[in-house]
Design brief:
This protein has about 260 residues and is α/β, with parallel strands linked by helices. The chain contains 11 helices and 8 strands. The protein is globular, with a radius of gyration of 17 Å.
Length: about 260
């Protein structure tokens, strides 16, 4: 990351800027850093000024205790101020939940877009699943079992056991364990795992909720629900895409929305 700014509580935030045009801050989800969003930033660079950053507790950014979702909203406010005073926001997965929280808080943004925020209202056991994950994750992190915390998250995403075991043996596992404590941050952002209807209903800016056509139906249902609940919401499906959306497919849709 080329640049630094400081959040309200003194936390240092690392970020990079590329491209030209309307400014959009890209917010990553769980188990990721700003670098995860770099391919999308590059895809947007011809039409947008794309900002990627390391959320607190990851990469080159600090992590001042105690954690609260409001501190991450303040992080976004500091970034918006650092890049000109107004920006659109885009978030993927739990990063999308953070974007919606920031939009409801009234941060200076013209538009917001999210991809597959995993609100579990349309899963029969959604609330129970989230409660069990929260309890097990807290115990694993509290006991310093970072690898077990990563496994819990990967199971929550539906990754098969053989794939988890393969990941454990891969060179990338050490990096996953390094950011494992930030899983607690994303869990807090997601709350009880259900759609925060009252908060979404208070959002005043246009919001685009996007999902992949090859993702599970409950992911698309959650995106539709976001679009239906936000006063100025819109819904879009990207055919053939999964939760690991391709920047070349998402980029044009996002650029078109940001252009207004």
């Amino acid at each position: 990351m080329d640049n630094k700014t400081t959040s309200r509580d003194g936390t240092s935030l690392a970020y990079s800027v590329t491209g030209r045009g309307p400014t959009v801050i890209l917010v990553s989800g769980a188990m990721s850093t700003g670098g995860t969003m770099a391919p999308l930033a590059e895809r947007l660079a011809d039409q947008c000024t794309a900002v990627v950053y390391d959320r607190r507790g990851r990469g080159g950014s600090g992590d001042t205790a105690p954690y609260a979702v409001d501190r991450e909203v303040e992080d976004l406010a500091a970034l918006i101020d650092a890049v000109g005073g107004e920006a659109a926001l885009f978030g993927v997965s739990s990063g999308g939940a953070l974007v919606l929280r920031a939009a409801a808080a009234g941060l200076p943004m013209g538009r917001a877009a999210v991809y597959e925020v995993p609100y579990a209202d349309h899963l029969a056991d959604g609330a129970a699943r989230e409660a069990a994950y929260k309890e097990r994750l807290g115990r694993a992190l509290g006991e310093g079992r970072r690898g077990d915390a990563v496994e819990l998250f990967l199971r929550l995403t539906g990754l098969a056991e053989e794939m988890i075991e393969r990941a454990r043996q891969s060179p990338m596992w050490a990096g996953m364990e390094a950011v494992a404590p930030s899983l607690a941050h994303d869990d807090t952002v997601m709350g009880d795992g259900l759609l925060p209807r009252d908060r979404l209903a208070a959002i005043g800016v246009p919001v685009l909720a996007v999902a992949g056509g090859a993702s599970p139906e409950w992911m698309r249902a959650a995106a539709r629900e976001i679009a239906d609940t936000v006063p100025r919401g819109a819904y879009r499906v990207l055919e053939g895409q999964t939760h690991m959306v391709e920047p070349d497919v998402l980029g044009p849709v996002l650029a078109e929305f940001l252009a207004g």
